[in-house]
User: Fold these one by one.
Assistant:
Number 1:
Amino acid sequence: MEKRDADLRTVARLQYDITAHDDETARKKEEIAASESRQAELAEAIGKENEALGLLYTELASGETSLSEMKERRAVEDEGLRAVESEIRELRKSLDDLHRQAGEVEIKLRETGLKMENLQKSVLEKHGTDLAAMMDDLPPLEEEKIAELSATLEKDRKTIENFGEVNLLALNEYEELDQRNQFLTTQLADLNESLGSLQRTITRINRISRERFAKTFAEVNECFKKTFSYIFPGGRGNLLLTDENDLLETGVDIDIQIPGKKAQSVSLLSGGEKSLAAIALIFAILLYRPSPFLILDEVDAALDDANTNLFNRLIRDVAANSQVIMITHNKSTMEVADTLFGVTMQKQGISSMVSVNLN
């Protein structure tokens, strides 16, 4: 009977463990689904940002292409406008000549008519003869005279025909072309102004970026020198630019000399030395711009006891201005903490948190 009760208790415990495992599995699946959903959202956001960036570059290229096309069209229209203006000036000149000639002919006709009237009156008064009736009785002109007059008339007719048809709508066409030219000129000025503004903005951003990068790099370098000499007493660390002439594209090198060793590349250092060099750079950035919170995950994993003590000295100084959370298995690092949080499994499959306040 006792064995049966023990077996029943074992079965109940196993069923409880199975239920706990199932709950944990369901929770993990939900977390995985949420992570996948978040990953999809981030990928979609990145895609949209890339698409928006591509659209901006496309709009810039399209604007430059439109500007070039409008310049070409304006040049063609300006050439056509100049040709039309030249044609209009020629037509106006011809028209003015015709008006002038017509006016002269009309004046001559009036003068001739007045002279004929005066002559007829004078002959009638002096001689009592009607000159108009006498002219009707005059004999016809000779053939040669008629041919000469006909040739002169034909020549004058051809001269008039060579003028061609007068385009009465030329002034309206000129006004339309002039309005179109003014519109294109305005559009071109707007595009040039937009392009100039964009170029000025890019130049200003590049200038500000260079100034801020140079200032930040210089200050971080000074902080790195202090931090490195603090971690490696007697050592020397310095940050170098790969291309000082191009601050927007330059890289950053680290020049390190550890006490007792000659200056060498970071790649030739040991694992612990590499870790301390990286820690010195991170804490130099934090020294330049402190952060209220600092989370470190297994940073001291590659450090030996001596290097761990140097790292812990730096942690104590940083903890004066920032709240530091460290994930570590190193006992020496745990000694500098104010509060410890541990994870234990008192029952199979059930984890619990244990906190210890060292103060």
Note: The radius of gyration is 51 Å.
Number 2:
Amino acid sequence: MFEIEWGKVKEIIWQEKELTEAIVEVAGRLEKALNYNFLTGLLSIGDEVLLNTTAVRLNLGTGGKHFILQVKGQEIRKMSESGHIMKMRYTPWQIQCLAVEEEESPYHQQLKDCKNIGGMPVVIGCLHSMLPLVVAGFFYATGGKGKVVYIMTDGAALPLALSNHVRQLKKTGLLSQTITVGHSFGGDWEAVNVYTGLLAAYEVEKADLAIVCMGPGIVGTGTAYGFTGVEQGEIINSVNILGGIPLAVPRLSFTDLRSRHKGVSEQTLIALGKIALTKALVVLPFLGEEKRKLVWQQIEEAGITRKHQVIEKEENLAALGILAKAGITVSTMGRGVEEEKEYFQAAVAAGRLAANIGKGEKENMGENCWLRKC
């Protein structure tokens, strides 16, 4: 069930093309609310609005704001005037969009004929905060050259507009295009699933690098398989089926107080050790002796070293200067690079390695690197 209440807009905090944050008065309280302008129209002070207040009442984190369902007196808008694909299907909020691969699309035949992604490197993350870090590593290695496309899954937030990272990366030109797959929506391109999303990144956008991960707000339950990050393993399989080169970013932490996230997160161990049925490159930063011992014990016990190509790379995080220059700050679970250095290093290193693979450079990957056989 969800809670719905009426409120009144008292203040506009900020407004972008697709998203507005406002202060609303609801039940005598002043609270924050988000409005998706492209669905419900622009807000004005004094507007009466219908709110979904469930997340605030549950004291949630990322989703802990009210969401505006309707502005009184304004009609709900269409996302697209064409297309026959519905996202959030068979709910009161289902929306029409034009999928890049459907019959009405000018790219339908092109994607119908395209069967693989020709060795395109694909970095697969498990948290949204990895996205800008991978981008920084890639452009640091290429000297600012190349085309990066972000494919957002429906593992967390569904509207792309919620992502501050995407908004900032696109404004600064660090991210070329976005593709929303499954029930996520609002990208430059819509796609039915991750397979056609990958094909569109390769065939339509001619990407030098595709990054696939969920939007803000991973879901976890504290159980072995009850988290949306299991998709990382499934996406590895998808990339291999389509003839790409998957690079998986492990979730590392040595400051998280939860034992299941110490060293290599249990989520990574499950996704790469159990869910992934095909091989990926897994990039680890150089670690001190004690930390390295723990990490290698974890990945060996999980079967990751037998299934995947694990590569250790030195990473000094100079690439973060690219984000600093663009005014982009990154944290994971509220912690920055000072507290979670290894997390940042792993994601940046994956971006740098992807750039080198794209340039055809496979040195320093080890004599037994499976890429040499491709």
Note: The chain has a mean pLDDT of 92.
